[in-house]
Specification:
The structure holds 2 protein chains of 2 kinds. By secondary structure, chain A is α+β, with helices and mostly antiparallel strands. Chain A has helices at 3-14, 71-87, 119-134, 200-204, 206-222, 238-250, 255-258, 330-336, 369-374, 425-430; strands spanning 20-36, 39-57, 60-66, 103-107, 140-158, 163-181, 184-195, 230-236, 290-292, 315-319, 322-323, 344-345, 354-355, 359-361, 378-382, 385-390, 396-401, 404-408, 411-415, 420-424, 432-435, 440-448, 453-461, 464-471. Chain B is built from 9 helices and 18 strands. Chain B has a 6-stranded antiparallel sheet. A 5-stranded mixed beta barrel of chain B has the order 8-13-14-16-18. Classes of the chains: A alpha+beta, B alpha+beta.
Chain lengths: 472, 442
């Protein structure tokens, strides 16, 4: 990464009589390893480095990027961005919400440096997953696994005087297994993510987790009973809590979606000005609070400053059941007359920064998991999920249980096969009457934007108890 | 151009000299442009230039790959790759890269798509067409995307080639009311016959019909799928034809070679033909691309292969090599014998779905999945659209749906829809499927 070329591009952009300009450089040192049934399929190693210019001119936004590090190319992309901004020819001129300029450096430390981990060690670590599965005595039809390390250096400057350098090592792993018993199959997929060093692998405990999943899938095939559909209580495990928090709170609270900027692809939101839901409207019970927080140390979605140079902080999106705060970048904040809350993220130098979640979760409540279950006469404990989706206004959602148990008179009785909750955002969060204490996180890749930008996030929370919801 | 090919070939020679058994280098100079618009105004115009060389090499059945962005990085990168290969483990199933010398079809890429002048005017054309067709004020959003790539490929196994690949897409969603919208797309490989107004008019037409939707009912319906939604599903289902998906059990086609998986009227092909947004004359191993019929008159005939998976399955490559895994390029469904109008007339009571998103599986080997229709959802009675519905979900099984295909239209459209799970263009007809399970929130 050549900071001199970045600074040159900013100075050149300033000379173009623009209202605002920024230059953002990303360099990513990526190493990946893919295994099929414990055998190395491929090793991938690459460095991706480039920079982009985003500017406002004539009330329009232009963006151009390149991975050619020359001053000539810098001039060319500034010219292109400037031409494109003016060509937008908008009636309503765009501005960004005000921000103080920031000069800082921030970095995520590694306890065990990724750079010192040999390919042999990476391979043997990942291969432990297949070895553990082989010795589990569960019939595994196929396993695919991969791990990746990505050392991300960024340099951000803007025409308001901000200058921010950052360094984040980000680790990810994926495992997909198919269990085949009695001529039937069941599948599970797990994703792991961390910002930090190789110590992530000892925290993740992937082999243990996948053996657990394999045994669960075997039980689904051999022991699980199908549900009798009806209204009943539902206890959601942290994985289910997390996906619901992400899909039916995080996404609809993205201000660009609320304002319609994602109307075509990722969609709009059930929340909109003049509609039934807005800041201050009740969307859940008093037990429901959902936050998004990029500042959780070592989390997959960690950052100190967003990709517009705004300081990150915790956002209370649903607070005690009430719609409280949207996620903003500087563009959406200006439109709604507020300040950005540091939610602008881009996956690489060739993508514009848009409003994104970081780590979305339900904070801890006051009960134990056992207490939630003890108080259920008839219900289901959905500990994890397989299929899920939600409509593009983020109101109608569906979660299908992977590990799930029938609850009778406060006790877990037997595994149930693929219980389904298909309900609305309002019904889901209104039905919550109790929240447990222990918060757990899962890594995920959140998709949005066109071209798609998959950003690393955590989803999570404690267990939730929902009263009288329809489960089938 | 030849200078870039020469430098790409040089990488292959250097890697061979360092001891690699087989090497492929593919250089892509890409220019991509996009206009994003919403609420009838341009939000941002984006341009990204990408200069990259993908290098894959094999040494004693160890496969390693990298990407570089400058030719002066090549020496260091090859040395690093060779080091990685030597400490990597053998993949006994690696069968080598494609071999041979080939003559390739001439690329028909459109050079005008290198720098499209006044791209925002195409957007205006689509927005105006949407409003005109809807007959009222609409809120439109979407993208105009253009691509121009020069691709240079060299392989130690013989193939050497140059290709240019272009594409243009206009995708527009128009809202006539808060919960009434339609979506239209116009996809081409060149500017010839590219008519953004066609996409706008389709979006506007559906948006008009979609007004005053009411929540639909759960049940089992005969469903007419518009080319846009069916193309999206074909993108997901076509991905399951990749031999790699089969090897890792993420395919409904595991163990079904030679078996009936659909009625005779269903023929599915992969074909990165000249018209397609994913046009290409060779794959990432340098094998000339071609039409591959993988379901012929309902029978699963082949998986989609690169040279290595072809060897495992004792067949020939289908020219579907990506850098590491085989991948489909453009799924085509064979045209039926019924017109779209006749297909509608044949439905006494059913649904017409126009678009979808968020397709997810419970089990991709079994094919149990759900997807959420969006934009126009309509009740059809005696071939006529009777009312607009909303908030429904298709919750079914891929094999069951393929098995229940009852009619396929003559008319087909080249479509591409957004999303992680369906980012594959296709040539899709209107399709009638019987007994589709529809669910909703309770």
């Amino acid at each position: 990464m050549d900071e001199e070329i970045v600074d040159f591009a900013l100075e050149y952009a300033r000379s173009k009589k623009v209202e605002y300009a920024e230059v953002r450089a990303h360099s990513q040192v990526q190493d990946g390893l893919m295994l099929r049934n414990g055998v190395v399929e491929a090793v991938v190693s690459a460095v991706d480095s480039g920079f982009c210019v985003r500017l406002i001119a004539g009330g329009g936004i232009g963006f151009a990027s390149t991975n050619k590090w020359t001053k000539e190319e810098a001039r060319a992309i500034v010219n292109l961005a400037s031409k494109h901004a003016r060509a937008a020819n908008r009636k309503e001129k765009l501005v960004f919400a005000e921000e103080k300029s920031v000069k800082t450096r921030w970095a995520v430390a590694q306890k065990k440096k990724v750079e010192n981990i040999s390919l042999e060690e990476r391979t043997s670590t990942l291969a432990e997953v297949s070895k553990a599965l082989s010795s589990s005595k569960v019939k595994i039809a196929a396993t695919t696994s991969s791990c990746s390390t990505n050392l991300i250096t960024k340099y951000f400057v803007n025409s308001e005087g901000s200058r921010i350098s950052s360094y984040v090592p980000r680790l990810g792993a994926y495992v997909f297994i198919t269990v085949a018993e009695q001529g039937k199959t069941e599948q599970a997929y797990e994703q792991f993510g961390y910002s930090g060093g190789w110590e992530a692998f000892s925290k993740w405990k992937i082999p243990e987790k996948m053996v657990h999943d394999a045994k669960v899938l075997r039980a689904v095939i051999t022991k699980a009973k199908t549900m009798k559909p009806g209204n009943m209580d539902l206890v959601c495990g942290s994985e289910v809590t997390g996906i619901a928090a992400h899909e039916s709170c995080g996404h609809p609270m993205e201000a660009d979606r609320i304002l319609g900027r994602e109307m075509s692809q990722a969609g709009r939101s059930f929340i909109y000005k003049g509609g039934q839901y807005w800041i201050g409207t009740r969307i859940g019970s008093k037990a429901v609070t959902v936050v998004d927080d990029p500042t959780i140390e070592n989390s997959y979605g960690f950052y100190e400053y967003d990709d517009e140079g705004v300081k990150a902080r915790r956002r209370f999106m649903y607070k005690e059941g009430v719609i409280n705060e949207f996620l903003h970048n500087r563009e959406s904040a200006a439109k709604l007359g507020v300040k950005s809350n540091g939610s602008s993220r881009s996956i690489n130098y060739d993508r514009e920064a848009i409003v994104r979640m970081a780590n979305t979760f339900v904070p801890p409540g006051e009960f134990t998991e056992e207490e939630l279950i003890e108080d259920v006469k008839n219900g289901v404990y959905m500990k994890s999920f397989t299929e899920w989706n939600i409509d593009d206004k983020r109101f109608n959602q569906r979660y299908v249980g992977r590990e799930a148990y029938l609850i009778e008179n406060g006790e877990l009785k037997y595994p149930v096969a693929r219980p389904v909750i298909e309900t609305t955002t309002l019904k889901f969060w209104t039905a919550v009457d109790a929240v447990s204490r222990k918060v757990e996180f899962d890594a995920a890749t959140c998709g949005k934007g066109d071209p798609e930008q998959g950003v690393p996030v955590y989803t999570g929370g404690p267990c939730l108890r929902l009263r009288k919801v329809f489960v089938k | 151009m030849m200078d870039v090919l020469g430098k790409t070939e040089e990488i292959v020679k250097k890697a061979k000299a360092l001891g690699a058994d087989e090497v492929i280098a593919k250089t892509t100079y890409g220019k991509y442009r996009q206009v994003r618009f919403s609420n009838n105004q341009v939000d941002i115009i984006v341009a990204w230039n990408d200069y990259s060389t993908d290098i894959a090499l094999a040494w004693k059945k160890r496969l390693v790959a990298t990407q570089i962005h400058r030719f002066d990085e090549a020496d260091a990168s090859i040395k690093r790759l060779m080091k990685l290969a030597k400490v990597s483990e053998e993949n006994p199933t690696f069968g080598g890269f494609a071999k041979g010398s080939f003559r390739y079809a001439k690329s028909r890429a459109d050079k005008k798509l290198k720098t499209l002048e006044k791209p925002a005017e195409y957007v205006s054309e689509a927005v105006e067409a949407a409003e005109k067709e809807a007959g009222c004020k609409v809120d439109s959003g979407g993208i105009l995307f253009t691509k121009f790539e020069d691709v240079y490929l060299a392989s130690s196994e013989g193939p050497v080639g140059v290709d240019s690949r272009s594409a243009i897409e206009l995708s527009i969603r128009a809202f006539s009311e808060r919960e009434a919208s339609g979506h239209g797309v116009e996809c081409r490989s060149t500017l010839k016959d590219f008519k953004p107004a066609r996409a706008g008019a389709k979006a506007g037409e559906i948006a008009k019909l979609a007004r005053n939707p009411r929540i639909g009912d759960e049940g089992t319906y005969d469903v007419i799928f518009d080319p846009l939604i069916f193309g999206s599903l074909l993108g997901v289902w076509g991905g399951m034809a990749s031999a790699y998906s089969v090897l890792v059990q993420q395919s409904i086609f595991v163990g079904k070679l030679g078996k009936m998986v659909a009625p005779e009227m269903v023929t599915l092909k992969d074909n990165p033909a000249a018209y397609s947004m994913s046009n290409k004359v060779f794959d990432d191993e340098g094998t000339p691309t071609k039409e591959n019929v993988f379901i012929n008159r309902g029978v699963l005939k082949t998986y989609l292969h690169n040279a290595s998976t072809a060897k495992m399955f004792k067949t020939k490559t289908t020219a579907n090599a990506g850098l590491v895994y085989p991948t489909p390029w453009n799924i085509e469904m064979g045209a039926g014998s019924t017109s779209k109008d006749e297909l509608f007339k044949g439905v006494k009571k059913g649904l017409y779905l126009t678009n979808t998103w968020y397709t997810r599986f419970q089990n991709s080997a079994k094919g149990d999945f759900s997807t959420i229709p969006r934009d126009g959802i309509f009740m059809v009675e005696r071939g006529e659209i009777k009312r607009s519905l909303k908030d429904l979900r298709v919750s079914d099984n891929v094999l069951a749906m393929l098995g229940n295909v009852a009619e396929v239209s003559k008319e087909r459209q080249h479509v591409h829809w957004w999303g992680f799970e369906a980012d594959l263009p296709s040539l899709a007809p209107y399709v009638l499927i019987k007994n589709v399970h529809i669910t909703k929130s309770k």
